[in-house]
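Why does residue order matter? Because the sequence determines the fold. Keep that principle in mind as you read this record.
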Amino acid sequence: MRSQGTIFSNPIVEQAADPWVYKHHDGNYYFMCTKRGYLELTQSTTLTGLDRGRKKTIWSPASGGRYSYNLWAPEIHYINNKWYIYYTANDGGGDDTRRICVLENERPNPMEGEWEWKGALPTPVPGLDGTVAFIGDELYFLYAGYGHFPNYGSAIYIMRMSNPWTITGEHVLLTAPTLSWEQQGGMAINEGPVILKRNGRIYLVYSASTTWSEDYALGMLTMEENSDPMDPRSWHKSMEPVFRKSVENGVYATGHNSFTQSPDGTEDWIVYHALPAPGADTALRATRIQRFGWHPDGTPDFGIPVGDTETLDVPSGDDSRS
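Structure:
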């Protein structure tokens, strides 16, 4: 990242795929991304300072175990006054061995204390990219499960949770990669679900096509907040991507995002990874951020990816802007 005073430019963290940012009431941002062999947690007082924040390796699996390889897409959540991390792992084999694992930490500061292994979630199909969200007063688990739809790939499923490490009840498919823009790069993919709530609606934003394809993009389902999230008919799918590459700005393979807000809570920001060129090595996926707005009908307006040469104002409430 190139920063100067009250402006910055993307990317903010180099070689950081599958970015997840959680803004906590302690005034810090907590950042995680895929490190493959271990889990690293970053604590930062500013959103643009994630690369310079305090870093700690909080989990290194015992070598050779069932969940000791390919640690992907970690997410940190704060639920019922405890911290939880959800991440994908396997035994070094193929897609059929992938599961979402759960860790718990009871300390107020997640950079302290020990992380306890709570297990791997026994999802009905193998999968990746697990996330959790309260919808109403119930906790739900969403993830990308492997299968044929009819082409091989992954689709987004939802289940209820009886607690943050236990799934229960029905296993419901919400969106499958049936559209052409969801099938680029050699596989049919819906993955990386994340929930955004606003204006009386629940938005499920997901990534589509393969992450190595320049056409990796974000899709979206929309549900009225009082509807039943376990009923697929409650969700309405956008037929086109809501956020995609910009050839003009030199930003490709935009996806696997999370959402956060400025320090003062007045601005909404999208966090995502992207590649610098078509066909670039996936090791070059970098974390980028930009502010987004809302359409008159209340739906999110993510705009287009901002290029590396464009400067942006730091988030509102950042100390450097005061």
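DSSP finds no helices and 23 strands in the chain.
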